[in-house]
Amino acid sequence: MQLNTTHITKNPIVLVSAIMSVVGWLITFIGACIIGRAGLLWWIVIYELLLLGGIFFSIFRHVFHHYQIVFLVFLGISISMLTGAIDGLIHYTSGGNQAAGAGAVILIVMQFFWVILFGSTEDSLVYQFIYSGFVSPVSQNVVNIGMHGNGSPKESKVALSSPEATGYHTHQQQPSIASIHHHHQSPAMHSPIVAAPSPGMAPPPQQQAQKLTATALHPYTANPDDPNELSFQKEEVLEILNKSGNWWQAKKQDGTIGIVPSNYFAQ
């Protein structure tokens, strides 16, 4: 799964979960300050600060996909520690304990949501439910296409983006084999001699070459760290050379070839 700042800022559900997590940590921190004594609670406060900081930093740096499994493990550890802390804090009636317990409850609820979100693939019902209502595109900048020794593209990362309409439309062209051959041969190879077809033999039918094109639904800016990605504008038409996977190999009108996110295009 890929996450970036657009996933947070353009989706109210995810944005609220991020804000509530920060609020929950602040309440827990204030409660720990009121209690004053050192111990397990302070370790939990520091652990939660590092965890939240690491998740937000990786999202803003567009490297979340590199550490997704690590964050899921740390979230599981966090939920376990918060559960024990809540059980210990709710038995005290002091203001500091009540505040720290309330903050821990907010944190654990948000982290349960994050575990479900981070652990779900883009094809899952959970992911589609969260993002299906928000048409705003996700600026991916997170997928690279690796090349094997034989030159075949390999999808090295998975794109996460809104699951709305994807697709392409085809534009039929019918250039003849003779015209293609004529285009590629040098002037010195031209010859006025044309072989006549044998009597009773029909000329070979012209082969149809299918050209796939797709129109961009939204503008997209390529990741500067990935030279394979293409930038394009809304309603720009690109020729699709390879439409396998979530990222397609495409060619712009100026002849530039690279990869584009398939979910930015519609039929």
From TrEMBL:
The chain crosses the membrane at residues 12-34, 40-60, 67-86, 98-118. It is found in: Cell membrane. Its main location: membrane. Keywords: Cell membrane, Membrane, SH3 domain, Stress response, Transmembrane, Transmembrane helix. Pfam families: SH3_1. Residues 209-267 form the SH3 domain. GO terms for cellular component: plasma membrane. This is SH3 domain-containing protein. It comes from Mucor lusitanicus CBS 277.49. The lineage of its organism: Eukaryota, Fungi, Fungi incertae sedis, Mucoromycota, Mucoromycotina.
